[in-house]
Predict the structure.
Amino acid sequence: MTSSAGKSKKKGSINGLYRQAGLTGTIALILGIGFLLVPLLPGEFPVIVAVEILILGLFAMSFNLIYGYMGQISFGHAAFFGLGAYATALMFRAFQGATGEIGYLDFFLSLLSAVPVSAMGALVVGFFCVRLTGIYFALLSLAFGELVFYVVFSWYGFTGGDDGIQGLMPPPFFRDTVNYYYFTLAIVAIAVVVLWRITQSPFGYSLRMLRENQQRAAFLGINVRLCMLVNFVIAGTFAGVAGALWGPFQRSVSPVLLGWTQSGIPVFMTLIGGASFFGGPMVGSVIYTALNSYVTRFTMYWPLTIGVIILFLVLFVPGGILSVVDARMAAYRRRRESDADISAGSADGREGVQ
Amino acid sequence: MSRKILEVTGLNKHFGGLHAVKDFNLELFEGDSLAIIGPNGAGKTTLFNLLTGYHKVDSGSILFGGMDITNRPSHEIARAGISRAFQITNIFPKLTVFENVRSAVQTQMGKAFDVFGRADKIGTEETENIVDLCGLDKRIRIVAGELSQGDKKKLELALALAGKPKLLLLDEPTAGMSLEETRETMILVDRLNEEFNLTVLFTEHDMAVVFNHAHRVALLHNGEIIVVGTPEQVRMNETVQRIYLGEDA
C-alpha cells in the first residue's frame, strides 16, 4: 500500500511537470540537462556525436518550419545547409590566406557570413518554389537543391569542386572538442529559442493556416505566396546557421553537404521524432545521429538499418515517437482524472478503499 | 439614400462552353441584405468566386466602395473588406476554435507577418467577442475538425466576421443546420445587418430563411438575373414561380 502510494506520487510529479510545461517544455528540459551532461561521459566519442546531433537537429528543426508548420515538403533543404557551410569555409580560407592563422574575430565573422548567404540562396530558390504546392513544390525544391549542388561540385576554381575545402582549423580555444561542443550548444539553444518564438507568433499561426487550408487563408487576407516565401527564407537561414557550425568542427566541407542524400536527413529525423511537435526533429536527430554513429561502428549496412527503422515508423507510428509519448501521457492523465472522479464520488462511506 | 457599396457591371464568366455568369449587373447599398436564389448550377457560387477574386472575370467590372477590385488577388479583396463564409465549411481543422478565429483576427489586424509577437497575446479580446457573438463560447478549446456540422458553420461565420468586413458574402449559411441552429444563425445575421449596419449578400435554398430575412431577393437562372425585388414582389412573380418555386409555393 505505502509503496504503491509512493510510486503513484512519483508518477504524479512527472505528470505534474508535463502538465505545467507541456510536451515541448518537458522535452526541452530533459534534452537540455542531457546535453549539458554529455561531456561527463567517458571518452571523446559521445561529445563528437552530440555536436553532430545538435547541428543536424537544428537543420531538421529549420526544415520542419516548412514541413510541419507550413505543410510543404522540401527535398532540397541541404542546399542552404551547404551554402552556410561553404560561406563559412570560404571566409575561413580567405582569412587564413592573409595571416596563415585565423583569429577569433575572423572566426565569428566567418560563421556570421553564413546568414546572408543562405538567406539569399533561400530567397532565390524560394521565389520559384512558393509558386507551387504539394509534390510540385517538393520536386522543384529537389531540382534547385541539385542545381546548387552541381554548381558547387563543378566550380573548382572557387569551391574546390569535389575535393571540397580542407584544413579549416578554428582558433585554439575552439579546437578542443568539449569547448566547441558547448559553443555549438549555446548557438543551437539560442536558435531553438528564436524558432520557438517564431512558431508561437502570429506569423507561426499564419503558417499553420497555410498548412490547413491555403484557400481560406487567402480569403481571410493572407498573401499566401509572400508568407510562404518569408518562411522559406527563415528556414533556409537557420539551415545555413547549422551548416556554418559544421565545417570548423569537421575541419572540412565537401559538396556532399548540399546533395539530396543530405536533404533526406532532416526528412528522416522529422519523421522519426514527429513533425507535429516542436521538439520532434531534435528528438529525431538524437535517435538518428546516435544510431548512425554507433551502428556504423559495427556494420557497413547503415542505410539498411535506417531503412528498416523508417519502414517500421511509417507503418506503425506515422506521427513519430513523440506522438506515442503524447498519447500515452494524455491517456494516463485521463485515467487519473477518472480515478479522481470515482474516489470523489465514493467518498462517503467507502473512505480508504484504494 | 445610403452609400453605394458594391457595383457590378456587365460581368461575364465562361468555363469552356458554359456561360456561367451572363452580363450580370448588381448594385448593393450599405446596410442592404440581398438574397440570391436560383436552382443548382444557376451560377451563385461562381458569382461569389468572381467577387472574391478566386476566379478571374472574362469581362465586366466590380467596384467596391468606389475602388476597382476586378481581378484583384483574394487576399487584397479580403483586406479591402469583403468577407466570405463558405457553403462547404472551409475552416482550419487542426487548430482549436479559438485559434481559428484568433488567427483570422490577427490577419485582419495586419499581424500575419509578425514574427516577434506572441500569438496568444494579440487580438484575444476581439476574438472572444466574435466567438461569443457566434455562440461558440463553450467550444473554444475544441479542435475545429471535431465540431458538429452546425458548429462548423458557426465557425465559418465567425472566421468571416473576424475580417471586420463591410460586405459579408454568405454561401448557404444554414445548410446542414438544425432548425434551432438555423434560427440562431439567421438572428445573428439580422443583428449584424441591423446593429452593425453590415451589408449582407447571401445565397440560400431555404425559402423560409430567404423571405423572412432578406430585404431584397434576386433570382439567378443560367447565369442571369431574372428578377430583383422585395421578397413579396419576387414571391408573387410568375417567372419565379415557374422556374424555381414550383406551383405550390
